[in-house]
Write a structure and sequence with these properties.
Layout lengths: L2 H13 L6 E4 L6 H13 L2 E4 L5 H11 L3 E5 H12 L12 E5 L5 H11 L2 E8 L3 E6 L13 E2 L3 E6 L12 E7 L10 H7 L5 E9 L5 E6 L4 E3 L2 E3 L1 H9 L4 E11 L3 E10 L6 H11 L8 E4 L13 H7 L7 H7 L2
Parallel strand pairs: 1-2, 1-3, 3-4, 4-5, 15-16
Antiparallel strand pairs: 5-6, 6-7, 8-9, 9-10, 10-11, 12-13, 14-15
Helix pairs in contact: 3-4, 4-5
Amino acid sequence: MAVSERAFSGARDLYGLDRDDVILCASPMHHSLGLRLALLPLLLGATSVILPRFTPRQWLGAVREAGVTFTIAVSSHLERLLGAVAREPRGLDLDSLRTLVSSSALLKPAAKRACREVFGCRFHECYGTSEVGIVSDLGPADGDHRDGSVGRALPYVELRIVDGAGAALPTGQVGEIVCRTKTAFSRYLDNPRATAESLAGGYFHTGDLGYLDDAGYLYLSGRRHELIIVGGINVYPQDVEAVLGDCPGVRECAVIGVEDPYFGEAVLAVLVGEGGVLDIHAIRRACAAELADYQQPMAYEVIDALPRNELGKVMKPRLRERFAGYDATAPLRRLMDY
């Protein structure tokens, strides 16, 4: 069986799809998610609805008018959809939607709960990559007490967490997520070196960091290249962003590392407010209460909007370029007479 056929049958069986489904594609075709959502109904013999681009109005209108039953949406689109639904005083007729899947970036636990309540359908969050397809899935049967997770590995996926040398790590310890699956790609086109590196040891190396709990649920900790090393200690941006995102007045946030003469790297928090002036002192107090000393942002910058790509993912390289040369610990060093 070809890889594409195995990937198709895996999605079909996981989400219970058949020829009676109406499947919505609102992601760009140059991304694997858009391509898969366009091909899936063709392979099923189902109905396809393709939007030229995503807007909350077009997405909600397509579900209502075409009777959409299934779609996979990126997390940033879902957050915008929740806002659009909240602004609709009469409610919306979305009864046709049977299964909704969040993909591409981790959805906040509060947003997951809101999706279940607002859309009233079977809600999943999956984790995967373009190279291997879906790796894990968090579904209705898992309960909302696992909302910080992206679920357990699918039956045909072997999932491991490894250190820098490729050795398996114990439960609860953060490392790189690697997997072996029947839906894996064969190679990168005309790039044998990248292929060999990504498939070292017989497992696909995702470049993502995470850990497994005792029940086999996967939790994401960010990208390997986004890891911040403060005074020799690893700081995972997602841990800091989870605290910042819960602070009053913070609409969006991103945490990056900037070079620092004292710590090697320092944590910089980039914030977008809901409107009005952000209370940075209150945010600092929240971080002090919830985070370890080495995780504390050493500086805060407020900007109008975070740079995002077409799938809504925050483009952290753009932020690192913007804040290159930023001296986050200058005030601290002055206090210490560094």
